UniProtKB/TrEMBL annotation:
InterPro entries: Alpha-1-2_FucT (IPR052501). Residues 1-18 form the signal peptide. Keywords: Signal. It comes from Ancylostoma ceylanicum. This is L-Fucosyltransferase.
Length: 238
């Protein structure tokens, strides 16, 4: 009799646990940023912004995809390079979910912008289970700056990526990757909009960051479009 009662209690406990988990899944809400199909740097920035927005709204980040092979490849590459990012998003088939679309980070003329900040807090009470933000790129650090420690942890390189980086550096007859910093600036497409990075200011800021991080060896490799002349500049040292 005692064994039967214990078995019955175990069944009840398991049932309650499974029911609670199912209810939690049913109540879970999601948010997506309008997918872009641009290059890897854009995907990385949008993933960080999406993480911050999802945290702010208490939702799970998702990608509404069907057969977007290019974007799937980018996400696969990002996950292989930064394994922890696989835990922050889900890929959901677009045809199987009902999404509520919301204009987000639009300008005063009703156009989507790449870099304007729109406070996600205004959407905290939105009733939709699947919320799709109609926005472009989400390239504004304010979306994730309050979660920077978590973002840094997410973008921690895999051991395979570190080994590959060290192999590449050894081919250049230099030490390991801890003495290097990579800086990505916008000097091509942004010039057409009159908002390209200032080269001299960027160099100064980069040297200041390197000094604060106590990076003894810094190589700056800056690609400058032909329209600004000086097609390639390599600046070793501090």
């Amino acid at each position: 009799m005692t064994a039967f009662i214990m078995l019955l209690l175990c069944v009840i406990v398991n049932y309650v646990a499974i029911s609670s988990q199912y209810q939690s899944i049913q109540e879970q809400k999601f948010v997506a940023l309008k997918p872009n199909h641009e290059r890897l740097g854009n995907q990385l920035f949008q993933l960080a912004s999406g993480f911050g927005i999802a945290k702010k709204l208490g939702r799970t980040l998702y990608y509404p995809l069907n057969e977007a092979k290019t974007l799937r490849c980018y996400l696969k590459l990002l996950t292989a390079t930064f394994p922890r990012v696989s835990s922050i998003y889900r890929i959901l088939p677009k045809k199987s979910i009902k999404q509520a679309e919301v204009e987000f980070a639009f300008d005063e003329h009703g156009h989507r912008t790449c870099c304007r900040y729109d406070d996600p807090s205004r959407l905290i009470g939105h009733p939709a289970k699947y919320l799709l933000l109609q926005m472009s790129f989400a390239q504004n650090a304010r979306y994730f700056e309050e979660y920077l420690p978590e973002v840094r942890a997410l973008f921690n390189f895999s051991s395979e990526s570190r080994e590959q980086g060290n192999r590449n550096l050894r081919r250049l007859n230099v030490g390991d990757a801890t003495d290097f910093m990579c800086v990505h600036i916008r000097r091509t497409d942004f010039l057409d909009f009159g908002i390209g990075s200032d080269l001299n200011g960027t160099l100064k800021a980069t040297r200041d960051i390197a000094a604060r991080k106590e990076i003894d060896l810094m190589w700056l490799l800056i690609i400058i479009p032909s329209k600004t002349r000086g097609s390639l500049e390599e600046t070793p040292g501090r």
